[in-house]
Amino acid sequence: MQLQERINAFVKLGDFLRQFSNEVFHKAENIEHNELFFDGFKHQLKLAKENNGWFTEENMSFAIKSWSDALTTENLTTWLSAYKIENRTPKQVAIIMAGNIPLVGFHDFLSVLITGHQVLVKQSSNDKHLLPYLAKYLEYAEPEFKGSITFTEAKIENFDAVIATGSNNTARYFEFYFKDKPSIIRKNRNSIAVLTGNETPEDLKNLSEDIFRYYGLGCRNVSKLFVPKNYDFKGFFESIYHWHSIIEKAKYANNYDYNKAVYLMSEFDMLENGFFMIKEDESFASPIATLFYEYYEDASKLKTYLDSKKDQIQCIVSKGFDKNEIAFGATQKPQLWDYADDVDSVEFLLAI
């Protein structure tokens, strides 16, 4: 199979997904194999929601829209133009996926197949319904993918390389178990935002998307703020208030109530507005419904500190603070060439 044929298949998948990129699905004309797959994918979305209470219609539609926007001929061609992808003997690449947000492992899945390899997928039990169905659609869109995609719930065996995502604890297991294989091992990372106090209400409103999307469960979600000494949080709370209905989600509300009770019983200082809390804390990882913050006085010293912690940071959201910063509101809209942990998975896959 030629590279262009693989690109064409994923473009067809993007066209298929576009029908589900809003909470109200729209069955479009001229989508290949739609009669066979449209209703079935609706059912898979229903099963995914029933299996994982964090996978709401809104968040699944958001994830699907992100991928339908990414899977275009222009985006795929631009992404891959930086590499020399030649026909080669396919290797079997295992992927151990996380399950914190919908289709979180799709970029690895795409990368393996688009570079001409075969993929062996071990999914998280939290996100097990969507990808196998989309893989089946791919096999219909491009029959030569048949035999190149395998899903397993058993111990992964007979593979040439591995991409594994997990916690810091599971990463140590991965590093030992896969020590003799080419590997990308991803650990815990969090995203931060650096504020100067000069942000507009629109900037802060956009930042709220980085905080609340997917209930804050993604590594690209902002979980920590760095703010100047004596920062006034009034404007921040006003700008995030449009997310107040999030407290109506039972799983989120339960976490909010629990964490608030812990903070109150422990007599920790915190600010809250009825659906969200902020607490001064040095940690990067904050619980659901909570955002940690820390004061800074010298921007250059803060840059030096953050550089020393770069192995714990996925994204830095700011406006004029860092050369690699991400704009407010853009953390959950990565491009195909925005690699997790800044590790180029395509380069890795072309080298095995």
From TrEMBL:
Gene Ontology MF, one: acyl-CoA dehydrogenase activity
Alphabetically ordered keywords of this record: NADP
Alphabetical GO biological process terms: bioluminescence
Methyltransferase among keywords: no
Signal peptide residues on this chain, from the entry's feature table: none
Name of this chain's protein: Acyl-CoA reductase (LuxC)
